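Take one protein record:
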Amino acid sequence: MKARADIDLDSANIVGIEFPEGSTAYANVNSETSAGLYAVDSDGRYYVSSSLAGTQWTSAEFARGNGNGCVPGLKEGTATLTASFRGLTASVNVEVSAAIDEDTQEELPP
């Protein structure tokens, strides 16, 4: 697998987008986790560490994708997050747990 954060999407022949195989994203309420979205071009797989410009995110009420490639947890539960880019789509399950107290690193009550 090739990994590059400096893809020129205008000149790359993007043939697909995907989340790591079999992956589940984990987040906490009121915190963010990286969505881990890959852009795949005709030469192999490239990781895009920042968001793909123009990516549209669709999700349930528990989590959502935002403009910087991260997934904020909205409330506890499980959601499927779908990313769409230039007619290509990819999905990942997102499990959102309770908020974490930054001082104690323990879950906060709902």
User: Anything to note?
Assistant: The chain has a mean pLDDT of 75. The chain has no helices and nine strands. Strands lie at 14-18, 24-28, 32-34, 38-41, 44-47, 56-58, 70-72, 77-85, 88-97.
